[in-house]
């Protein structure tokens, strides 16, 4: 349970750093790619095994970090595009509601058992995530651009499900730091290719604020994945319960941090989401 709490706190800290990006006018794309480099470095720093290329190319899980690294960058850009076309709330809801995918996969692929109260808690968690995430009075999805939130939903779910799969099937305790690190390493590599293509039209300018923002983001970002995998390995709860608790607690903590430190105003729907989040956590964790 300690690993789950640390995963929630790390992810909530990511939210705080993103809010500070607005305050300090940091360019998100460049900071995010820097953050992947930092997160990769943190993982290799914590890994106490051999780090030669030949030590990793024979690993059965090598394809995981490669695909996940590419997905990280692709989904990030799709989220940004969704926010531009359909609004921030649509992008946020599509991302967070994707917790349904690893929950279903946990039951279907790994035969996890859920009590009736836990199933009710998971359904309440989905409603809570929706209510706590919407910032506009109502969500309007542009029909022509429906594919964007759908891809964000599926892509985010595939990322969580893939992490769940590699944790369940392939990873040892010792390999968790380097597995997490290599995901971020391949994400950074993909990001550099993306920036390189972009720099052909617009020359790249080094900005120390973007680099500082990336460093501030990279450390909690690494630990959000590291502690999530540790929580999944702890076997205290099913992976379905872990993903539900992790996502809904992140939404709740981020909302409360927004109120306390950034003076954000919540609508009655947002407050309803927070209350349902608390109720769903109780049902999933205790029953």
TrEMBL record:
Chain segments annotated as transmembrane: 6-21, 28-47, 59-78, 90-110, 116-134, 146-166, 178-199, 211-229, 241-262, 269-286
Query: What GO terms fall under cellular component here?
Result: membrane
Cytoplasm among keywords = no
User: Which InterPro entries does this chain map to?
Assistant: EamA_dom, EmrE-like
EamA domain segment(s): 2-133
The entry's keywords: Membrane, Transmembrane, Transmembrane helix
Q: What is this protein called?
A: EamA family transporter
User: Which organism was this protein described from?
Assistant: Flagellimonas oceani
